[in-house]
Amino acid sequence: QILILDFGSQYTQLIARRVRELNVYCEIHPYNHIPAITPEVKGIILSGSPCSVRDQDAPMVHLAAFRHKLPVLGVCYGAQLLAHTSGGEVQPSAHREYGRAKLGTVDAESPLMQGIDQHSQVWMSHGDTITQIPDNFRIIASTESVRVAAFQVEGEQTYGIQFHPEVTHSLQGKHLLQNFVVDICGCSQDWTSASFVESTVAGLKEKLGDDKVVMALSGGVDSSVAAMLVHRAVGQNLFCIFVDNGLLRKDEYENVLESYKHLGLNIKGVDSKDQFYHALEGLTDPEAKRKAIGKTFIDVFDQESHLIEDVVWLGQGTIYPDVIESVSVKGPSATIKSHHNVGGLPDFMKLKVVEPLNTLFKDEVRAVGRTLGLPDNILKRHPFPGPGLAIRILGDITAEKVQILQEVDALFINGLKREGLYDQVWQAGAILLPVQSVGVMGDERTYERVVALRAVTSVDGMTADWAHLPYTFLADISNEIINKVKGVNRVVYDISSKPPATIEWE
Ligand code: XMP
């Protein structure tokens, strides 16, 4: 495997994804919490950083722990760190280098540059530049304005690159990473979803033995795939609970329950609608609503899990980005909403936690799900927030509002599916606004509710663009909603991107 040391760059996760796309397993660790370097580790990548090596409190790492022993590739800040700590010089660039650049000459002798074309396009994003390299460093690529675009250290397998191979605008970036990971580090490319399933199930069997496991399922990809893995390991000793919080999409509870039964899971549906509505009564603040839902869920789940005798484990669908976020260089970020808590285990539940997906990215989770034979209606399902429709009804929640929104949402989502647009957007839904507007139906004036439709394209939900759905589709859906859903007389479409807006309205 490859170890990626994170110095806080926005691109660190992308490096990991590219390495894994090469079917090589890798892990990201913060530079200040390096794990023990086991024999499985075949090489180290040092990430970029928003910091400068010239800063007083610049993030540093004890390079001697692995340099000379293992191949090392420094990317951007990582490269500058290697140069700086070996006696080279790093200075602010005359102008900030950001965007596409072309490699001029490339040293064809260098193992890192094998197969990389002269004039290959790369992506630059840096404020500092290496102005002088130590004697034993050799330049292996330059661009017009960056003399030290890539270097190699004589007599060791240590390399540095100023550009970002992990960004797709570096057209041969993946090839360069392959040169490092496969040819220089000698990693074998055998990390696939099938091998992941095999080793994970074997590991779970050993860890869980004959113990009982309880899991809450949401119908989403992560919890479903996690449950299937645990199910393969312990069979009917896995007890799944699916709670109807009254905030799900129309018919979702019945459909999802049916799918799970079909998959052979030992699943119990719990109708707790009234308990949730009661807890939400009169609440309008989004975070207060989230907290009330979270607390009610824990109450319900705790009650249900106590009905399972001698349960030892709590299974969770935590995925890698949640783990990285919770141990990141910057510490758990202040902007995290209350849903991103990893673990989330209240003390009184006293269960051990098992998280079979906590090393996988979302697309890898889907690939594993496909290997496990999960159906498309689960695998390709859009993300849906835990608090469900409660954060899409601005203001207080009532059963009546939920029902209106469910109808609108179902027409929108079914329309997207019918027109083949569902798989083209990352997430879609409807929002019930706390305003009424004047309309006219037949001879009468109406004063009814307004709904907003939201559909976005995104890769990971961190940034998103509003989906450019065809006008004809929007026109048809708007008509259909106003005609079919009593109480709604106006439909608007949200054309805000994230940032500065967010995907949800609350
Ligand atoms: P925002 O609105 O922050 O949403 O752009 C990003 C992604 O997170 C989902 N989201 C939530 N998921 N509980 C969840 O489980 C929540 O409270 C919550 N709030 C937002 C949102 O649907 C989108 O996929």
TrEMBL record:
Its EC number is 6.3.5.2. Keywords: ATP-binding, Glutamine amidotransferase, GMP biosynthesis, Ligase, Nucleotide-binding, Purine biosynthesis. It is an enzyme of class 6 (ligase). GO terms for molecular function: ATP binding; GMP synthase activity. It catalyses: XMP + L-glutamine + ATP + H2O = GMP + L-glutamate + AMP + diphosphate + 2 H(+). The active site is at residues 76, 164, 166. SUPFAM superfamilies: Adenine nucleotide alpha hydrolases-like, Class I glutamine amidotransferase-like, GMP synthetase C-terminal dimerisation domain. Transmembrane segments: none annotated. It comes from the Bacteria. ATP binds at residues 218-224. GO terms for cellular component: cytosol. Pathway: Purine metabolism; GMP biosynthesis; GMP from XMP (L-Gln route): step 1/1. Gene3D superfamilies: 3.30.300.10, 3.40.50.880, HUPs (3.40.50.620). Residues 191-381 form the GMPS ATP-PPase domain. Catalyzes the synthesis of GMP from XMP. Homodimer. This is GMP synthase [glutamine-hydrolyzing]. It comes from Arsenicibacter rosenii.
